[in-house]
Amino acid sequence: MSKADTIKARAPRGFADRGPADLAASERMLAKIRETFELYGFDGVETSFVEYTEALGKFLPDQDRPNEGVFSFQDDDEQWLSLRYDLTAPLARFVAENFDALPKPYRSYRAGWVFRNEKPGPGRFRQFMQFDADTVGSASVAADAEMCMMAADTLDNLGLAGQYVIKINNRKVLDGVLEAIGIAGEGQAGQRLTVLRAIDKLDRLGADGVAQLLGEGRKDESGDFTKGAGLSPAATERVLAFTQAQGATGAETIENLRKVVSGSARGEEGATELAEIAALVETSGYADRVIIDPSVVRGLEYYTGPVYEAELTFQVQDEDGRPVRFGSVGGGGRYDGLVGRFRPEPVPATGFSIGVSRLFSALKAVKSPIVSGSEQPGPVVVLVMDKDQVASYQRMVSTLRKAGIRAEFYLGSSGMKAQMKYADKRNSPCVIIQGSNERERGEVEIKDLIEGAKAAAAMGSNAEWKAARPAQFSVAEDKLVDAVRDVLSRHFG
User: Could you tell me which Pfam families the record lists for this protein (predicted)?
Assistant: First the structure.
C-alpha cells in the first residue's frame, strides 16, 4: 500500500478505547455494584445490543426518523433495527416476551453498552455503559423507595459515603402542573418533552436559563440556539414555582407541592405517594441521604410516577480550573406503561440506572481505592536467547502457567536489549534468562525488574550498576516456580 493510500488510524467521534488499567479498575467497580444489587435480591440478565426500532418506542426523540437519536439500519426483510438507546426498553421487551415464565414481581439487573446517535462533546459519548436494576410487576411505592435506598447503599459501598444525595420527585405532581398550564393533551407530547428537558437542566442553567427554554428558546455560549417549549409567561412562572417548592424539610416540600397542584387529582396523588416514600425512607434510616426534590423530572417521557436521581455533592475543577459540582451519576423512576405496550394487561415497573462511565470518573476524582488501587503486575517474560531452543522456553512458560503465574515467552525477532525494553513496557515484574551456559548447568537467571529499577535509581553510575548486576540471581531450573513466586510475593503480597 502506498503512502497516499494509507488509512488514517482514528476512533470515530464520540467513541473511546480503554486500556488494561481502566478495564481492571472498571471490573472492580462493576463487581461492587453487582454485589450490592444481588444483596437486594436482584438477579442478572443480558439483553441484545440490537432491538427492533419499534420496540424502543415512541419515547425516543424524533420517532419518525429512525436514525435520529439512535443508530439504525434495515434488515434484509426491510425491518428497522436499532442499537439499544438504554437498557430499560430492551428489558420491557424481554419481560413481555418471557412473561409467563418469570416470577412476578421480577427483579433483575443488567450491565452493558448503550448507544446514542447524538452530537458528541466533552464528557458526552455516543457509546457508554449503564448498570440498571428494575422491579417489574409491583405497583407499590415501596419498590420505588427500595430503589433509592439501594442506590444509596451502592454509593456507600463504592466509598462515596457523605458525598452524595438521592433526590426523589413524582411525575404525577408534574402532570398536575402540566394540566394546570394546558399542555396535558395527547397531541402535545412533544411540547411536554421539551418542558421536561428544560426542567432537567435546572442545576446547570439556573432558573433564567430554564425560563428561556420554557419560552421561545435559548442561545448558548457557542451561539447554538435551542428551540423552547413556547409556554406563555404565566405558564412558565407556574412551572418554575413547581421546581422551587423545596422546603426545609420533606414534609414542608410535600406541602408546597400540594399547593402547586391544588385542584389536580393526579397531582395530589403524586404528592401523597411522595409522603409515603418519605415515611419508608425515614423508617429505614436513610432520611439523611434520600430527600424530596421537585427539580428532578428525568428527561424521558415514559416515566409515570416517582423519579429519582443520584447526585454527587463534592466539587471538581473544570477545564478552566473553576470549581464545579460533579453532578448526577444515575437515576430512574417508575414506568408503568412501558411493558404494557407489549401486553394486553397493565404491568407496573420501576428501575434505577447508573451511568458507569461518569461514576468511574467520579471515583477517580476522589482517588477511590476501588479504581486507583495497586497496579497489577504484567506477565513474567521468558527471554529467547537461542532461537533453536524455543521448545525449552515454551516449556518454562507452560510450567509457570500451570502454577497459576501469568507468563509468556518473547515472540518477536529482536535481541536481548529490545526484549528487556519489551518486558518493561509489559510491566513485567521479572524476566527469565537462559542461555547456553545456564542450560548446561541446569539453571535459569531471574532478573527482578522492580528491584533492579530501585537499585539503578540509587546508584551513581551506569558502570557501577552493571558491576553490581542488581536483583539478578540464578536458581536451578526445577526451582523456577518457587523463585518467581518469591519475587511476586515480595512486591505484590
Answer: HGTP_anticodon, tRNA-synt_His
Residue ranges, the chain, pLDDT below 70 = 1-4, 57-67, 123, 299-301, 318-320, 324, 373-375, 457-470
88 among the known binding-site residues?
A: yes
Q: Is 312 left (phi over 0), alpha (psi -120 to 50) or beta?
A: beta
> pLDDT of 281-299, one tens digit each?
999 999 999 999 988 877 6
How far is CA 224 from each of CA 199, 217, 227, rounded to the nearest angstrom? 19, 11, 10
Q: Is 303 annotated as a binding residue?
A: yes
Q: Is 317 marked within a binding site? A: no
- Does domain 380-492 correspond to CATH entry 2.60.300.12? no
**Residue 302 marked ligand-binding:** yes
pLDDT tens per residue across span 11-44: 898 898 988 888 989 999 999 999 999 999 999 9
Query: Residue-wise over 267-299: b if at least 16 C-beta within 10 A, else e?
Result: bbbbbbbbbebbebbeeeebeebbbbbbbbbbe
- Answer yes or no: is 298 a known binding residue: yes
CATH superfamily of 14-49+84-372: Bira Bifunctional Protein; Domain 2 (3.30.930.10)
